[in-house]
Design a protein that fits this description.
Chain B: Keywords: Gas vesicle. The complex is a heterodimer of chains A (258) and B (62). Chain A is α+β, with helices and mostly antiparallel strands and 258 residues long. Helix content of chain A is 41%, strand content 23%. The relative contact order of chain A is 0.15. Chain B contains 2 helices and 1 strand, in the order βαα. Classes of the chains: A alpha+beta (258), B mainly alpha (62). At the A-B interface, helix 2, helix 3, strand 4, strand 5 and helix 4 of A face strand 1, helix 1 and helix 2 of B.
Chain lengths: 258, 62
Amino acid sequence: MTGLRYVYAVCRPFDTPLQAQLTGVGGDPPRLLTHHGLVAVVSHVPEADFAEEPLRAHLEDLDWLTAVARAHQGVIDALTTVTTPLPLRLGTVFRDDSGLRMMMEEREESFLRTLDRLAGRVEWGVKVFLEPVPEARAEPERKPASGRDYLRQRSTRTKSHEELWQKAEAFATQLHETLSACAEDSRLHAPQNPTLSGASGRNVLNAAYLVPRSESEEFVERVDRTKDGIPGIRVELTGPWAAYSFAGEETTTSGEGA
Amino acid sequence: MTVVERREIALVDLLDRLLAGGVVITGDITLRIADVDLVRIDLNALISSVNAQVPSPFEESR
């Protein structure tokens, strides 16, 4: 028995083998562990890194977290080409195969139900940003002639910023309604912190949509059509993702906050 | 307005999904790392550690 078991996903059994050179977390090639009608996709990882204490510490190390996140995503991505995986939260670790089997046994029914709900679906991410206002930088530095002048300039600036912000919010709300209507389900993620994302502008909407693979082209086109909207607003599309945001139990309201 | 389709997956988008999405397994012998509160705390720590190295995004021109 070597190391712990890092679990990426649970799937229904599939026929197509995974790419031979695929490496997972810690460089360990993902292995399949079958239990009844389910397959868990697993890597063997060292206890020194993945036991509770070291893992907790590692999660605060951005480089380490990045490596694990990319490896995790690499395996999920590969799985997506051969089946519909049910992804597990990053850092789901078991002591050994029998612990993993026990969990699969316990949750079998719920896994199967969720796998049915997600079969043939993918997730698309849509974000709306309010761009930093360029005019504020281009036309500035006209020295106010008086205190009153200064206050007027300032209030104009604040007002135009507020208007833009309201426009962006209205736009995002409308877009979310439109996209939700042509998706099977949606989730709102917390707006992204610009420091972590490095994206310019303020993140107004950070949403995920569950869309049948067969309707994805149409969905993407619909997002694309929002191009003719309001200047100063940027829309970003990511995907297709495995249905990470929809892997939890089905709920009608978003649990992720907004 | 522009619609940007990114080729390379941004870490932050990945973390939205890997740390806030995915099935959370509790109540067995799993080392219960993955509960949401813990992850929130970790992300805060991350953000402050990133703060030190990354220049302000507000200076970027696009």
